[in-house]
Write a structure and sequence with these properties.
By secondary structure, the chain is mainly beta. 5% of the residues lie in helices and 52% in strands. The chain has a single domain, classed as TonB-dependent receptor, beta-barrel domain (Maltoporin, Chain A).
Length: 818
Amino acid sequence: MDRSASLRAIRHACLASIIAAAGTALPAHAQSAATEAAPADETASAPTEGEIIVTARRRDERLIDAPVAITALGGAALDNYAVTEFTDMASLVPTMVAGKAASGSSASIFLRGVGSTALSAGFDQSVSFVVDGMPMSRGREISLSQYDVQRVEVLKGPQALFFGKNATAGLISVTTNSPKDFFEAGFKAGYGFEAKEKYGEGYISGPLSDTLRARLAFRLSDSEGAFTNTAAETYLDPLGMERHRNSKYRGGGRTYSGRATIEWDAAPNLSFQLKTGYTDQKDGGPTDLIERICGSGRTTPFAANGIPPSPNADCAINGRSDSSTLPVAVAEANYRYAGDGHMYSRLKSGYGILTATLTSDVFDVTSITSYYRFKQTDLNNVSGEAYPASFSQLADYRQTAEELRFQSKWDGPVNVLFGLFASSNKFIFNTDAYIFPVPIDPSSGTYVTFKRDNGFSGSSMSAFGEVTANLSEAIELAAGARWSYESRDSYQRALPAHAAFATAFPSNLPPLEDRYREGDVSPQVTLRYKPSRDLTFYAAYKEGFKSGGFNISQSLTPAASVAAGQFGAERARGGEAGARAILLGGALSLNATAYLYDYLDLQVQNFDPVTIGQVVANAGTLRVKGVEGDFNWRSGGFSLRGALAYNHAQYSDYIGQCYAGQTIAAGCNLLQSNPADPDSAYTSQDYDGRTPPKAPRWAGRLGAGYEVPLSASGWSLELNGDVSYSSKYNFSDTLRPDAVQKSFTKFDASLRLNGPDKRWSLALIGRNLGNKYVVTGGSDIPFAGGTGTGTTGPGVLADMSAFVDNPREIYLEASVKF
């Protein structure tokens, strides 16, 4: 049976199951599921006001009852600091390092030192997203604005059982607000002084009839950017063509986004929810966030291929960098997606999610049918205004998914959860690159160095189940597994480009095609002990799986091959134990988790600045172990909160790529490029015992809030302040010794004046008030050094392009609710 036939069969089975269940359950007198996402945990007590409710096990339960390592962020916590991007959420979650990038998946997301860098577009992310039940694993979701959010749950460690596809390192689950049985509306508008950002968002929600409810939410924003562009306004490039400053500032952009939700109670125990959203986002591209780090301690950039560095470039992470356009003649000469030569990124994303929920006295049945598509084009330059190391991309992704889930509600001590999941996807990833400033090729009519068409089509099918047994009133044992089957057909094709580079990047190579198929079973066992309502202990063993595939970002050179682009599956296994308590009559909550996980055949990727391609491999083992905890204390109008994490991550049995300019004496002494020639250069180094990139040993956050009434009529003043800390980490995939983000501390604060019943508010919000420039990722710049690799030297380290997190921002925000 082929993939499409398999998916059709599963969808038909899902539909038949819903119809059959409806026929047997409609007469039953069960609770209405109009607004319930999942049945409550019947072995635990009902929540009281102020307690956090999570759905980490696809059922509504108190945070203290969920035996999962989780950081839960309510919508109010995000609004408190005007957080609408995943990159800003990273400072709220210790050990999370997240940032945008210019190639591949355009995202770098790490939890506990485990993640997938952006370089290869063929990878699924080790830390994936789920939005309102719809799985997303391509990474570009990091760019989507988050607004009108009910809660965000960051689940840490392998997540195989409950959320569609497997995720080995963690999962970010976003639940947006749904309509209620009463009318409500709210609007807010704000201005960011540093980036000169103007934004507005709002929602309107309520019943349309006794059985029909709707909600409409939107967000609009426009900013100039908070980073300085030091490039010259106008100048001539080495070919004598005119180039311009890309814009006065860097990091700006505009976003239009909207979301509509409709809920229908078709019967007392049958409901449907349809969520659909669309985002149109345009900005200066990920390279708007790039600054330069110069290798070997240089204080001026390296002369790339003999072209002198720009006098407007420096070697410091300071919010200043040079970014310019390409000549219009270059952009318009058969350079796909290059537009008018301005660096840019344009992302259009849309989705639809239909959730059907059927309740009965025996089973609750949930069907989630979703469609998701994004299309992004961009033009990027990673080397600044002097040297045109530029590339354009088309990333066009489509995904259809279906999940059918059954949750029993038996009166006895044993209950079951089981279901099916299926998805199909198609990805087009095309790239043009302009690396060398040479005259136009009259035969092809282009300046472009090489052109590639890449992509894949695939499918995922899985079946999952869990049995939960209440061994006593205090002890719960749950055991389950997910069986997964992944298939992916990938391709790469070279297209005609500039004739001067036909030897290095020939266009007459046969296409590379890869066919990947693999299955896996990921078990999970959890033991929970609740001696009282407000005290929980748990221990869990988990496994996770991320499929292998083919590196569609590798360079198509004469040395390229299908075998060189293949990578195997990534697997995780290990366990965690935790304790949770609510004390002082509910005023104090405490959570602590200890964990140890091994990641086998970890998928890793590196940039080769010589071939201008991405190299992928599987590391032997990465072990992560640590302890993390958090607390929250409230007394009257005062609150104190904090979190601290210790994480020790270490490679073993991993031989990987050298960094550019690493000599034999510096450790590049393994695997010669030509084993038959004893004088050939070495290509690899030993990573055994070393800490992987983006794995800070310590991270934490400490904050306080105070709300004081100002009048008897209900006016109040809220003050909040938080400080987050991260110890140092290496941000390069090859662990360059000079690619270290030093330890840093960020300060956030807000002051909010509320009117009666908080119907309106006026807020002053500050994020990263110390204006710390934090690097979240980086890679070598092509032809900017990097010589002597794998030889006796001398070695010259390449300059690096470093992606920098958001700088200081101060907002003035006004909001009103009806």
